[in-house]
Amino acid sequence: MEPKGHILVVDDEPSMRTALSILLRRKGYHVSQAGSGREALEIVRHGHCDMVLTDLKMEGVDGMELLRQVKAISPHTEVLIFTAYGTVASAVEAMKLGAYDYIGKPFDEEELLLKVARALERKALVREVQELKAELKGHRGAQEIIAKSEAMREVLAKVAQVAPTEATVLIEGESGTGKELIARAIHWASPRRNQPFIPINCSTLPETLLESELFGYEKGAFTGAERGRKGLFEAAHQGTLFLDEIGDMPSSLQGKLLRVLQEGEVRRLGSTKPIRVQVRILAATNQKIEHLVAHGVFREDLFYRLNVVRIPIPPLRSRVDDIIPLAHHFLEIYRKKTKKEIKGFSQEAVQALLNHPWPGNVRELENAVERGVILARSLYITPQDLSLGLPPYSGIVPGDSMTLKELQRRHILSVLQQHGGNQAKAARELGIGRNTLWRRLKQYGLLP
């Protein structure tokens, strides 16, 4: 059996080194030993090592210095520090320097093995994300995939796994989370990368127009059809068709989509002749499809066809580590567009960005940064430039206790009020689609 990973055990006590090595080898790991920090550095410099398991207190090069130098030589090698002399301060310092974790002696064997397994899983995750980004390098929009948070790294790792396959993928996430960007990443990292990627939003077109767009039509199929036209399935032949907001697809078209998935052929409107197509389907939704199935709005058999691999994209509010990197990414874009000399965000603006609930997710963040760049009067964007605060009418005062859903509701209503009830302008300000805004207002009981 191939070893699960190469672990270097570093301790100046031979008995501890031996005991740890035996434990790890029994679990299938390849293990090397070093009796000092200096010896460990020689091993790291001259050979591949997935993880270093080191004591903190050693003569000469101690565990903390070893951590610093290992990260300088091999940044992606995970380091786990153990010690009988640990303090909170030393643990914090170790984590700041890049240690995966810090464990005190004597330690529980199961706890140690769990930490080792998780550290190596993280290393594999980081490697998959790096490989995916290398695959996507040079593609338009690929650089916009910011994955500092663990949640987004897991998303990209799944993208890397599914991209080389032919599997149908269902991408779930709130409006503005970047579902189409993930779909494009899957396409660009797939064997179909040199073939068409064709997106269509199922919620923006009337039923009859959506049907003709997807399946095409023959001359005379309906009034105004003066000549035949290929549908998007034919146009995407050998490539990828991305069906955005699939949950809004009319039930009459769901059956036709199911037939395409099952039989690999389409029939244009006005024709009985089947046309073979070889298309990979990626679908996305901001709704819970299971709920639509339960209410008879979405076909169960189509759901199972689409739900071969599911990739949920977390909302921005649950991946706080991505907010500031994304903000700086958008700042760079709009600084170049406006040719304004802006160095960054004030400390107060950074705090405002981190505290905002982002109901419109990444799209709303991009809009806020663009607004901040345009309105900034100094070298640093301020909270006033971002205009993230709710107006007084919302009733929010310090100490208010409310759910996130209620906070989002108030924010949406305040923006709508600012624009005099104009839904198109409010949706643009919030960074969400008009249909999403319409659904939210209907949920709030403000529409019939």
Word description of this protein:
With 448 residues, the chain is α/β, with parallel strands linked by helices. The chain folds into 4 domains: 6-105, Response regulator (Rossmann fold, 3-Layer(aba) Sandwich); 149-312, Rossmann fold (3-Layer(aba) Sandwich); 317-389, Helicase, Ruva Protein, domain 3; 398-448, Homeodomain-like (Arc Repressor Mutant, subunit A, Orthogonal Bundle), CATH 1.10.10. It is 47% helix and 13% strand. The protein is built from 19 helices and 14 strands. The protein has helices at 14-26, 37-46, 63-73, 88-96, 109-136, 150-162, 179-188, 207-215, 232-235, 251-263, 289-294, 300-306, 323-338, 347-355, 361-375, 383-386, 404-418, 423-430, 434-443, and strands at residues 6-10, 30-34, 51-55, 78-83, 101-104, 169-172, 197-201, 240-244, 265-267, 274-276, 280-285, 309-312, 344-345, 380-381. The strands form 4 sheets. Strands 2-1-3-4-5 form a 5-stranded parallel sheet, with helices on both faces. Strands 7-8-11-6-12 form a 5-stranded parallel sheet. A two-stranded antiparallel sheet has the order 9-10. A hairpin with a 6-residue loop joins β9 (265-267) and β10. α5 crosses α6, α13 (323-338) crosses α15 and α18 packs across α19 (434-443).
